[in-house]
Amino acid sequence: MEVINALGRRKAAVARVYVKEGAGNITINGRELNVYFPSSILQYVVKQPLEKLGVTEKYDIKVNLDGGGFKGQAEALRLAIARALVKINPEDKAALKAEGFMTRDAREVERKKPGQPKARRHFQFSKR
């Protein structure tokens, strides 16, 4: 099997994933999954599409992660893995879509406007 690649984004994070047959190793920026994401919750988020299809031990995944915080990176990686798995086997798309793993979460941080302390917050109005 050749190497399958896919891209996932969330907030400011971008995950490029390269999937090939192997023993289930996930390497992120040259580090193991449990070293890069010490939180078990984020490890769980990353592995969700693999667990859903029951292929956790079947593929080796190499990841280039860039930008954003750890939560955004984990969710970008989940999307990229789901997209790669669909490239490998298109019949899995319905199962992954039902769980919401194929949907790009497009919510971004709203920009700060001039004359305001934050994006929506205004300075207190003083009549006198």
The CATH architecture designation is: 2-Layer Sandwich
Name of the CATH first level? Alpha Beta
**How do the strands of the widest beta sheet line up side by side?**
1-2-5-3-4
Question: How is the main sheet built?
Answer: 5 strands, mixed
Provide the β-strand percentage band: 15-25%
Mean pLDDT comes to 94
Beta strands, count? 5
Q: What is the CATH topology descriptor? A: Ribosomal Protein S5, domain 2
Work out the count of structural domains.
1
Put simply, the count of helices is 4
Indicate the overall shape.
Answer: elongated
- Contiguous low-pLDDT stretches (5 residues minimum) are none
Q: Based on helices, strands and strand pairing, what is the structural class? A: alpha+beta
Order of helices and strands: EEEEHHEHH
Radius of gyration: 18 Å
Percent helix range: 25-40%
Distance between the termini: 74 Å
What is the fold's blueprint, element by element?
Elements (H helix, E strand, L loop, with lengths): L3 E7 L2 E9 L4 E3 L2 E2 H4 L3 H14 L5 E8 L3 H19 L4 H7 L29
Parallel strand pairs: 3-5
Antiparallel strand pairs: 1-2, 2-5, 3-4
Helix pairs in contact: 2-3
